[in-house]
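Consider the following input, taken from an annotated entry for Leucine zipper tumor suppressor 1 (Micrurus lemniscatus lemniscatus).
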Amino acid sequence: EHLQLQEELSNLMKEQDLLENKLRTYEKEKTTFAPALEETQWEVCQKSGEISLLKQQLKESQTELNSKTNEVLNLKAQLKDLRAKMEMLEIKIHDLEDSLHAKAMELEVCENELQRKKNESELLREKVNLLEQEIAELRTELTILREEMKCGVVSIGLEES
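Applying the prediction step yields:
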């Protein structure tokens, strides 16, 4: 039994050595990995900060996007209003052009009528001038006849007495 205990003790001591070796190995690894772990923890912390910053930037970008979207919608509404106004103005312009064309044609008719009246007036003036000349000639003849008649009456009267 003593041998068995010694053997067991020996096994336990070997196992202890193995475990101590493993412990030393783990401690070396811990010492080796500690800076890497610390660096990794630092990087995680840094990345968390970057993520927070990116989240904030994303939020700001979304706010700006919403603002720009509203601005675009407002501009589209203004554009629609301006197009409607332009359409109304084009209709007005078309109506005014039609009216102007009608007035131009009316003016042309009036100008032709005026020219016809001027021509008619000119002809009447010429007739009036001819008639006035004729009247003047007739007056002259009448005056001459009256004078002749006076003379004739006087001469007739002298002859009768």
